[in-house]
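User: I'm putting together notes for a lab meeting next week and I want to include a structural view of one of the chains we've been expressing. I don't have a solved structure, so I'd like a prediction I can at least talk through. The sequence is below, exactly as it appears in our construct file.
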Amino acid sequence: MSARVGIGLIGLGTVGTGVAKILLANAAVISRRVGVPIEIVRIADLDVTKDRGLALPPGVLTTDAKQILNDPSIDIVVELVGGYDFPKRIILDAIAAGKHVVTANKALLALHGEEIFAAASRQGVDIGFEASVGGGIPVIQALREGLAANTIQSIYGIINGTANYILSRMTSEGQSFNAVLGDAQQAGYAEADPTFDVAGIDSAHKLAILVALAYGTPVNFKEVYTEGITHITPLDIAYAKEFGCTIKLLGIAKLVGNEVEARVHPTMLSASSPLAQVDGVYNAIQLVGDAVGDVVLYGRGAGSMPTGSAVVSDLIAISRNLLTGAVGRVPPASFPQEQRRSLRMRPIEEISSLYYLRFMVLDRPGVLSQIAGELGRCGISISSVLQQGRRDGQTVPVVIKTHMAMERDVQAALRAINQQAFIAEPTTLIRVEGQDE
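Assistant: Thanks for the context. Below is the predicted structure for the 437-residue chain, given as structure tokens.
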């Protein structure tokens, strides 16, 4: 091993620039922590002329990623391109060349993580992906090492800053989803096409990674139930407040016997719970272990420097492994490949939850009893009802909170109720996390 660790960085966008800035600005303290310098040997990007405020030596920048893969002085390849096909080829080629890999690419790992983890294990190289979930929050490290003594009973995560920013603004200001989304796009908190964020897809990518690590199981991303926040209205947020709750987009995973629930959807939480306090673009992940109990990790879930911090933490960890001959000490997916087990992913129809149901009905006698009757026929017990203001013949909301019920039964009841002539629009359903009363 040479007297330095050589880094090749592919992708000099927002995160890549943050990584380079941290490696340059904190070079002295990083060198002290590792024992030798971690040096950028080469950076590949399609645009090598843009000024990113980096003082790089001549010859470091290239437009050819192969120069990094073929350079024997580069020990670790950092992939920060994003997308699927090209970064997958880069990572697998780097592994095949015997190089260690660091990536922030949650979408790639959620869909192709099994293939990448298996390749890294076969080749005897390390792969770091701390930055793939929660930006600067060290949740991957927590699951792979800090909480390794525990059976992880559940995971609750606010793991998309854009969705959390939108819901926070809707909650504090009473504005509509579309109004806040427009502001978020202008402020740079939301992409021009925000679908991945607001439809829950980005959160589902991250949850798939957390589930694979927590439970030592391959995860088929298509089996992660995913629902976004586009249907949440100021009316639902106001009713949530009346129930002492806050609405958040959560990634939820639970170990139920030998099966795993993994789902992303808007969720009502008690306003006093730790996650309910997380506002704006911040992320938070609540892990529940059988030995440790609740652990809550909170911080910036995106951005150049927070995400760059997570990437550099992986570089330091792998560099330490290289220097001490400890490569492979921690398996890529937390469990050795031969110890991983395929657990059944429980379909959404089989989960049990509390439910918030908002019916928009024509205000006439007997409507509430008909709704309650149909819920009762499906075995659903009502815990509370809010019915405000009589306006004969007009549309009014009827809001019901249920006791614990099975999703399949709730959906069956809603299909029957939504066909009734007194229902003015499809019923809004929001799942509720908390204790049954």
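A couple of points you could mention at the meeting. The chain has 14 helices and 18 strands. The longest strand covers residues 245-256.

User: Perfect, that's what I needed.
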